[in-house]
Design goal:
Elements: E1 9-10, E2 15-18, E3 21-24, E4 29-32, E5 41-44, H1 47-52
Antiparallel strand pairs: 1-2, 2-5, 3-4
């Protein structure tokens, strides 16, 4: 979940776009593209959860 950003959540469509994942290199963990193309996807967001997300006033990169 930590690879998600505010810009990845669409409250009006009730979706979350998954297009990044944590990767572990020899020196440190980094955020990058998922391992496979199928891992990049858009999933439905339950309306109860969308209503509870504290997104108002937050920067898209948060």
């Amino acid at each position: 979940m930590t690879a998600l950003r505010v810009r990845d959540i669409n409250r009006s469509k009730l979706t979350v776009r998954i297009h990044k994942a944590w990767k572990y290199t020899t020196s440190k963990p980094v955020v990058g593209a998922p391992k496979t193309k199928k891992s990049t996807r858009t999933i439905n967001l339950p309306d109860q959860l969308a209503a509870r997300l504290p997104l108002d006033g937050r920067h898209p990169d948060e």
